[in-house]
C-alpha cells in the first residue's frame, strides 16, 4: 500500500495504472477500495472448508503435510507408501471495480439528505466494515 501511495504522489502518475495484490486477507479488499484506484485486483487462493483440506503429500484428510509420513492405509490395515499426487490450487480473482459498481448501484438512488459522492460512500463503507470488525 505504501508503494501505491508513493506512485500516486508522483507528478507523472498514470491514473490508468493497474494494481494487483496477492493475499488471502479480507482486509486487502477494504484497503484496495480505500485507494480509490480504478483498476485494482486481488488474487487469492480459494478458502477451503475443513472437509476439503487434505495433506499435500499423500492427499489424505486428518493431517497436514508437515505431519505426513507418506503412507497410505489399505482396507486390511496394511501400510503402503503413498504415490505423490499433483495438487491443484484454486484461485479467486477479485476485481474491485465491480465492487465499486455494486456500491454505486446500491446507494445512487437513495434519497440522501446530502450530495451523493461515490468516493465518500466508499470511505464510509470501508470505515464501517473496519469499525464493526
How is this structure best described in words?
The protein is an alpha+beta fold and 133 residues long. It has two domains: 14-46 and 89-133, no CATH class; 47-88, no CATH class. Helices cover 33% and strands 16% of the residues. The protein is built from four helices and five strands. It has helices spanning 2-9, 27-34, 96-108, 118-132; strands at residues 19-22, 40-45, 71-73, 79-81, 91-95. The strands form two sheets. Strands 1-2-5 form a three-stranded mixed beta sheet. Strands 3-4 form a two-stranded antiparallel ribbon. The longest helix has 15 residues, at 118-132. The radius of gyration is 22 Å and the shape is elongated. The two termini are 20 Å apart. The model has no long low-confidence stretch (mean pLDDT 81).
Give the gist of this structure.
The chain is an alpha+beta fold and 133 residues long. The chain has helices at 2-9, 27-34, 96-108, 118-132; strands spanning 19-22, 40-45, 71-73, 79-81, 91-95. The strands form two sheets. The protein has a three-stranded mixed β-sheet. It has a two-stranded antiparallel sheet with strand order 3-4.
